[in-house]
Design goal:
Radius of gyration: 24 Å
Largest sheet: 11 strands, mixed
CATH superfamily of the largest domain: Dihydrodipicolinate Reductase, domain 2
Distance between the termini: 49 Å
Strand content: 25-35%
CATH architecture of the largest domain: 2-Layer Sandwich
Number of domains: 3
Length: 430
């Protein structure tokens, strides 16, 4: 078999595991690719760190761009991370020099993926990024290959394991967000600075990538609505449970609307409701397939390196093609429903002073905005004289419930801003 020569930039958790697999499972991987995989050079900050494999016969550089000095390298695996900077520079130069690129860099692809894919096409190479979305779930391959004949109409996903772990633990243990976040950090499910995850940015990067492939559109990342779980309350998790729901951070994208990352209530008997812990899930609906769902580990050394190596085999065998399923030039401009006419139910929690007529006034405001109440819970009066009104609505458009919430917040007996959370119902997306 001929050699297929590899340069790896970044030997962190994923990079080190990728290299280990290429060394320890070389025979199996090479057999599946029909070519002998060989690591020619690597780049990392520390040459002497114990990574579980030897660097004998492998060139080492602190500067990732030095990998490009090896003209015989066939593919660069970029595992540095970051939207721009050295990672983007390396990928651009690699593609320009006729080298394939594999990356797990979701931020870079969400912001520069179209540019990089066009660069790959112009230089008769490919850029692949299965590892950028949902780790061990072949979320991109499912879209680009298994569902290639379908018109995909929507994507619903649990796309961040950190948030899913926190919400799952809050639900099962009845603990508050700060406590569970600290536990997640101790267990390695959350970073020391968890902002990227808990503010929804990580999930948004993944949703933007999936949406572009699914809808054959040039998705503009800035068009996404992004809301995380930083302000999630155990109060709402407990009320959700009483109403027969659980709380999840969902990525939701429809072909004709603004994609969003948002907390949502899911009925306990929905399939996505059973996806707990650090697992990810991606659900698609298309024609003619109907609904299809993939569930699995979304991050970590094993799942992410698995996706990297799958891309490597595809490139070596010649199976890898257009990153977005078709040439970048054929992707349409993003189409949006600017009227936001999609209808769904909502959960509304309102803290009020327990006075006669308050419920009547709230009901009148909802009625004036064309909204009807599906269910209601009112807790007993607390020591300060306040109570929670917890309502669910029948289906309505987002702008109507948002306007009603603003009007309700201005009512003299309402204490603070109402909490408004959409209720996900799979039947609404059929």
């Amino acid at each position: 078999m001929s050699e297929f020569r590899i340069g790896i930039a970044g030997l962190g958790i994923v990079g080190a595991e990728t290299a280990r697999q290429l060394i320890t499972a070389k025979e199996r991987l090479s057999k599946r690719a029909g070519k002998t995989f060989k690591i020619i050079a690597v780049s990392a900050r520390n040459e002497n760190k114990d990574r579980g494999f030897t660097l004998d016969d492998i060139s080492f550089y602190k500067d990732p761009l030095k990998l490009l000095d090896h003209s015989n390298i066939d593919v660069i695996i970029e595992l540095i991370g970051g939207e721009g900077g050295i990672a983007l520079d390396l990928c651009q130069r690699a593609l320009q020099s006729g080298k394939h690129v594999i990356t797990a860099n979701k931020a870079m692809i969400a912001h520069h993926g179209f540019e990089l894919s066009k660069l790959a096409e112009d230089n008769n190479v490919t850029i692949q990024f299965e590892a950028a979305v949902a780790g061990g779930i072949p979320a991109i391959k499912v879209l680009r290959e298994g569902l290639a004949s379908n018109q995909i109409d929507y994507i619903i996903g649990i796309l961040n394991g950190t948030c899913n772990y926190i919400l799952s633990e809050m639900t099962s243990s009845k603990r508050a967000f700060p406590d569970v976040l600290k536990e997640a950090q101790k267990k390695g499910f959350a970073e020391a600075d968890p902002s990227f995850d808990i503010d929804g940015v990580d999930a948004a990067h993944k949703l933007a990538i999936l949406s572009a492939i699914a809808f054959e559109q040039k998705i503009n990342f800035s068009s996404l609505y992004i809301s995380g779980i930083r302000h999630v309350s155990d109060i709402d998790i407990n009320y959700a449970e009483k109403l027969g729901f659980c709380l999840k951070l969902l990525g939701i994208a429809r072909r004709d609307s603004v994609a969003e990352i948002t907390m949502a209530l899911i009925a306990s008997d929905e399939q996505l409701a059973s996806v707990n812990g650090a697992l990810n899930a991606v659900s698609y609906r298309g024609v003619p397939v109907g609904s299809s769902i993939c569930i699995g580990p979304g991050a970590g050394a094993g799942p992410t390196s698995s996706a990297v190596l799958a891309d490597l085999i595809d490139i070596a065998t010649g199976l890898a093609n257009f990153a977005y399923g078709s040439p970048v030039g054929t992707l349409s401009e993003q189409i949006l429903d600017l009227n936001n006419s999609f209808k769904q139910c909502y959960y509304l929690r309102i803290a009020v002073t327990d006075k006669p007529g308050v419920l009547s006034e709230v009901s009148s405001i909802l009625r004036d905005h064309g909204l009807s109440i599906a269910s209601m819970i009112q807790n007993e009066q607390s020591e300060d004289g306040s109570v929670f009104l917890v309502l669910t609505t029948h289906k309505c458009v987002k702008k109507d419930i948002e306007l009603a919430a603003i009007k309700i917040s201005n009512f003299e007996y309402v204490l603070g801003d109402p909490i408004l959370i959409p209720i996900y119902d799979s039947s609404s997306f059929v």
